[in-house]
């Protein structure tokens, strides 16, 4: 029961310290913990009497020990990066935090997963300049990354995506950090600074994954109808029997890669009749079953239009097709 | 007459010796106090049983528990009475509830290092004005008050545990 009581108290203290300094993240479990290298001293005093005379109080010797260094770090992969085949200098974001009770430096390394779809090339690690976005102001990391206790840094793995990657594939990269301190394996030293690995696995090494995702094309379809003519009113035609109605289908690629072999298929609504050879693609009239526009059934129950490729560049990322029906 | 005078002389001498004894006690104390920090270590004894022993505080990390043993010894030839041992909780440490012990002592605690009371009598006023029982982190000092005098040469120890914040 005794150690249990003490542990509860430590948690409470750590939480108080967290709120006091306004640290929002709970990653720093060590906040409020005594810093490595501090000497903790203890002195008792005794008072007594001899006969009826109070004597001068006596102090004990000073019992001293040194708080040792608890090596602990946390690496956290951030939001995966969506990218495209052949893209260069693509960044994956990670956070490296010193969660021990003393200053430390970490050697960072990158490993590629064998359980994903592709590997990236030209890997480098950069230290963020504070905006959490990879850019020109970031610094190439070529030496162990120093971090004071209770601090963290945002780092990026930057690499190139192979052209052979295809839609929907992922590449998983693991950022690993290893302390540059050496665990004390010799005799314990009450007055010296021992180093203890307190991280998961007690090996002074932690890591986490993040991944590149090759984005698939994302298509959205908007269909609208307008009455072209009703045989009665020219200015304001109504959808009365005999009226001609034009359906407009707009396909937009909101993804990051080109969509290929896009085919639009639509059923002719009931109580309407398809107007033969009324399909258009990009404003160009199509002959029924002439290769691009296809009809099914007689009377026609369905039309389909081969729209070919739909790019993703703004301004040229949509195609428009139309066809007409008459209201029965 | 002769023996009476001798007796009177002897009495005077004894009184003078006793007086000089007190005087020297004021300069050279009659109670020595030793303070030792240790940690508890689990080990396997000769019979293969797991046991615990106190060893020097080698590796101590935040959260680590330290056992303090304070030993008082009467180094004089006269009894030491009303022996009171005080130990402030060291900086960076938190007292472990229920860990203070001392055979033949009355143990009291202080939240300010000045006034001492039984733990159950201590409370803390919170910011909202309500009071709550004192907790481990509130305790600033421990006091052991011995009920009996220390005979010449006698010693006794008290002990408490604290964890590193």
Question: What can you see in these coordinates?
Answer:
The complex is a heterodimer of chains A (328) and B (165). With 328 residues, chain A is mostly beta strands. Helices cover 6% and strands 46% of the residues of chain A. Chain A is built from one helix and 26 strands. Chain B has 165 residues and is an alpha+beta fold. Chain B has a single domain (2-164), classed as Sandwich (Immunoglobulin-like). Helix content of chain B is 16%, strand content 43%. In chain B, strands 1, 2, 3, 5, 6 and 11 form a six-stranded antiparallel sheet that branches. Chain B is flat, with a radius of gyration of 22 Å. The N and C termini of chain B lie far apart (74 Å). Residues 1-26 of chain B have low confidence and may be disordered. Strand 2 (45-50) of chain A pairs antiparallel with strand 4 (81-88) of chain B.
Taken as a percent bin, the fraction of beta residues of chain B is 35-45%
Greatest interface and its participating residue counts:
A-B, 53 and 57 residues
Compute the number of strand runs of chain A. 26
Give helix and strand order of chain A, one letter per element, not per position: HEEEEEEEEEEEEEEEEEEEEEEEEEE
Secondary structure topology:
The complex is a heterodimer of chains A (328) and B (165).
Chain A: H1 2-21, E1 39-42, E2 45-50, E3 53-54, E4 58-59, E5 63-66, E6 69-71, E7 73-77, E8 81-83, E9 90-98, E10 104-112, E11 121-127, E12 139-140, E13 145-147, E14 152-160, E15 170-179, E16 195-197, E17 205-214, E18 219-229, E19 244-253, E20 259-267, E21 272-274, E22 280-281, E23 284-285, E24 293-296, E25 302-310, E26 318-327
Parallel strand pairs in A: 6-16, 8-17
Antiparallel strand pairs in A: 1-5, 2-3, 2-4, 7-9, 9-14, 10-13, 10-15, 11-12, 11-14, 15-17, 18-19, 19-26, 20-25, 21-26, 22-23, 22-26, 24-25
Chain B: H1 2-27, E1 31-44, E2 50-55, E3 65-74, E4 81-88, E5 93-95, E6 101-102, E7 105-110, E8 123-125, E9 131-133, E10 141-146, E11 155-164
Antiparallel strand pairs in B: 1-2, 1-3, 3-11, 4-10, 5-11, 6-11, 7-10, 8-9
